Amino acid sequence: MWFVEEEHRRHKARFAPARSIPRYVENIESTHTPTTSSNVQEFLRDFETYRPVYERLGAAREMEVVNRLFAIGREIGQGTMPWTKSDLKDIIRWKRMHRLIPRIENAPDIEERLEAAFMIQDERARIDALCRIPGIGPVLASAILMFTSPETYALLDCHAWNALGFLGFHLPKKGVSSGSFTIPELLEFLRIIRKLAKEKATTPSEIHNALYALDRVRTNKRWKWHKRQVQLGIVNSFLGSS
Q1: What is the reported pTM?
Q2: Which has the minimum average pLDDT: 11-15, 27-31, 90-94, 163-167?
Q3: 69 touches 94 (CB < 8 A)
Q4: Cβ pair 216, 159 in contact under 8 A
């Protein structure tokens, strides 16, 4: 696929003279929005191919729990019920952030604070309020917001973030530590994701899933032996061996 070719070009660019600029870096505005980035357009064109990739990579794990959380989130979004401590612990387990459960267990008035945060209309203030709850940071806040409103929010993680960097957005590379994100970075992530979702006429949550799949596949070591095989068949080969 196109991103395999791009990885090959990026590898060659590391050893090129300083004046050589990789294609995906060209035509980038200071606002972090590619103006004519072919990588972004290729990604949006291939968008539907990432859905089965996302599912087969195991990213759509524990679907029974996920579907229940989305159902609860819809009720919360309609103002008919609040998040509970048990719901929050389910999100933490889904995100494999088990170390946070003791902090959630010992946090006083956590359900009241969650409900109060969702009463705030201003987005930045709402996220700030969520992140002031013990155990909740930008990553967990994004998950809570995504389950409440997938049409507006997306999950923040290093895979989706790094995929955006690969596409040409000026974002620093992140590791697997969820604590490495800040609230301004979450807001910038949402701004970009929403722009892509609007262009593709889909939801920010679906854009995240495609970005996650893109980053997982393109960084897999087995792909380094298939630099020149850019057809979808190699994706199917990869999926068949997973």
Answers
A1: 0.74
A2: 27-31
A3: yes
A4: yes
